[in-house]
Write a structure and sequence with these properties.
- This protein is an all-alpha fold and 377 residues long.
- It has one domain.
- It is 79% helix and 0% strand.
- Helix 10 packs across helix 11.
- It starts with a helix and ends in a 12-residue tail after the last helix.
């Protein structure tokens, strides 16, 4: 009997590992299926009124594409290039405690790779791909690099809430109750952002307090405690950039500039399809789209962007078909060049897509690496 048990132990271990892997695969499949379901629902909801009368709506959508001013793609792509260049410069400031990096040569490629994989992989895994590629290239701790990416999200929220609030304040023709509700939501988001900023200001005391508490908890495994301490210390090094006023001002200014460009791209897409609205409306749309894409959906946020365009613009125009065409134009004008350029840079790294995807999935599922909540536009 002892002989049988001794020889069965390795087989049981293999079965447990196989069951764990199978469970993980089913979990990933369920998440992917749920994301595509969200996208399909959003796409249907955004077009449901037009689907009720396809004989009239479909020709009008086709006409909106036929008569669109595609020359406006030139300033759109210029703004898109400038958007990612400013993002690389902002990342350079956030990475200052870890070293000096050339934005064009060392930061733009991993940034574009990350956003390309966000367009191709579910669950915003492109953020982890970006961290993995950059940290591997420069032999830096992934936790410290990831802390800078998470900080980007904090400043993204700050900038977006600012433009969203300005849009709601200055836009005309909006229902007062809806306006007050949206302003309350924006104020709540601003409060959370300020709370994160307060944490940044007192990072070292927070780290010492967390270490002191965890050390006194007997039920926390030593290995998990050590990993958490490593994350806190790496994060603290990443946050140290914000304790320098000049760097902080530069990060805030770059955040506002890049999201102003994104709002302008939305405005250009609307104008190109004949939808004449003010820039304040584009600011409201920017806030709606930016927060909506945090909802898990299919890669590239298909359907979510269209739903935001239709939901916001119906308050200002009755031309649903032109708005839908503008949402598709805005979406593709970013999706196609960002994905192609990111894949080009990825091809130059010599890495394999399967290896990077597996690494990103393992990093996203394994503590102490927290998943960033907010994707960039």
């Amino acid at each position: 009997m002892l002989y049988l048990l001794r020889n069965a132990a390795p087989s049981l271990k293999v079965l447990r590992v196989s069951a764990s892997r199978l469970s993980s695969r089913w979990s990933r499949f369920a998440k992917i299926a749920a994301g595509f379901g969200v996208s399909a629902f959003c796409l249907w909801w955004s077009a449901r009124e037009m689907l009720g009368n396809p004989e009239e709506s479909l020709p009008r959508i086709a006409r909106a594409f036929q008569t669109a001013n595609y020359w406006l793609l030139l300033p759109t792509w210029f703004a898109l290039a400038l958007f990612y260049w400013l993002k690389a410069w902002r990342w350079r400031l956030l990475l200052a405690p870890l070293g000096r990096f050339d934005p064009a040569r060392e930061l733009v490629p991993p940034t574009m790779i990350g956003f390309a994989f966000n367009n191709l992989l579910p669950a915003h895994l492109g953020d982890f791909v970006r961290v993995f590629v950059f940290a591997r290239r420069h032999r830096l701790p992934k936790a410290a690099v990831l802390s800078t990416v998470i900080l980007e999200r904090v400043f993204d929220v700050l900038a977006i809430v600012s433009f969203f609030g300005l849009g709601l304040f200055f836009v005309t023709g909006l229902d007062p109750l809806l306006k007050r509700t949206a302003l309350i939501g924006g104020a709540a988001a601003a409060a959370m952002t300020l709370g994160a900023a307060a944490f940044v200001a007192w990072t070292d005391p927070f780290v010492r307090l967390a270490e002191s508490i965890l050390t006194r908890l007997p039920f926390v495994p030593p290995g998990l405690r050590a990993k958490f301490f490593e994350l806190l210390e790496s994060g603290a090094r990443g946050l140290s950039a914000l304790h320098q006023p000049a760097l902080l001002i530069g990060i805030v200014a770059l955040s506002l500039a890049q999201w102003a460009l994104n709002g302008w791209m939305m405005h250009l897409a609307l104008v190109s399809c004949g939808v004449q609205v003010s820039l304040w409306v584009a600011c409201v749309l920017l806030g709606a789209v930016a927060f909506a894409v945090t909802v898990p959906s299919s890669p590239g946020y298909v359907g979510v962007i269209q739903l935001c365009f239709m939901s916001v613009l119906k308050l200002f125009t009755d031309d649903k078909e032109a708005v839908f065409a503008a949402s598709v134009l805005y979406h593709l004008a970013q999706y196609i060049p960002v994905t192609l350029i990111g894949l080009y840079y990825f091809g130059r790294t010599g890495l394999k897509v399967s290896d990077v995807r597996q690494q990103a999935e393992s990093e996203a599922e394994t503590p102490p690496v927290p998943a960033p909540e907010f994707p960039a536009g």
